[in-house]
Request: fold
Amino acid sequence: MTSLIYKEEAYKIIGICMEVHNQLGKGFNEIVYADALEIEFMDHNILYSREKKYGIVTKEIYFHINTKQTLLLMIK
Reply:
C-alpha cells in the first residue's frame, strides 16, 4: 500500500470536503460546492489558489493548495 506524502494535510482537506458535502447535500452546480470549499479553506487558514489554468478545457474545477496538493472538484 502506498503511503500519503502529506497525510495530515490530505486528511484535513478530505474532512473539509466531506463537511461541505454533508452540509449542502447533492444536486447543486459545481460552483456552489467550489464557493463553499473556498470559504472553508479561508476559515481553516489553508492557502490555495482557485481555478488555475492548465490548458485543458473541461468541466472541472481545480484548487491549488499550499503548492503541494491539487484538489479536483468534479460534479457528475
